[in-house]
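Changelog-adjacent note: as of this version, every example in the card shows the full chain rather than a window. The one below runs 240 residues end to end.
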Amino acid sequence: MTALRRRETLTSQLTKTLTERIVKGALKPGDKLPSEQELIEQYSVSRTVVREAISSLRAAGLVATQQGVGAFVQPAAANQPFRIDENSLDLIKEVINVLELRIGLEAEAAALAAQRRKPEHLEAMRVALDRMAAAIEASEDAIAPDLEFHQTIAEATGNMHFTHLFGYLGALMIPRARVQTFRFFADDRTAYLNRVNGEHEDIYQAIARQDSDAARSAMRLHLSNSRERLRKAMEPPLSA
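Full-length structure tokens:
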């Protein structure tokens, strides 16, 4: 039995744990997730927590559920032919909408985190950044440590409403959990993810030195960059 820590919402923790298992290949495309009862017993959580975590994974496109059967890991988008159809464009619009929400919320969360963060928050952020760098080096998507970094900032605000909201959003917060964003740009996957993590580093440094204005600006720039990258993906190609 693996008991989850109580420092953040249990739903958020379980979502991150299952996301990491999927991203790292412990749960492969087509695999059936453990049953609700098995997850309850393994992680010492309630049925509500399990169902909310599965809902977050489903919303992120990581699993599909079959009524009365269970949840199954979806095929990796990277293994599918690249194309943008109407449904893909609708999804990009939705991801942009979430980013617009996050810009307002997380910019202020970063500013508050700079004022209120504790040593353990900085340590958790540093661990997340290092894990993301290692995942990039291993040619992984680094979704789990990316999510962990942003959720730790929410926790560092000391405001449970930020923590609960970010826990509710779960993997929806990370654009590439739903859209393979690196496919839309000239950069290769590693360069794209390194640039994202470099933006994270700027946020971390501002929070570490307790510079609220710089933390707010760095977070706003980071999320605005993500939004603009997706907006460009929706622009029609220039005619010759």
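Structural remarks: The first helix runs from residue 10 to 23.
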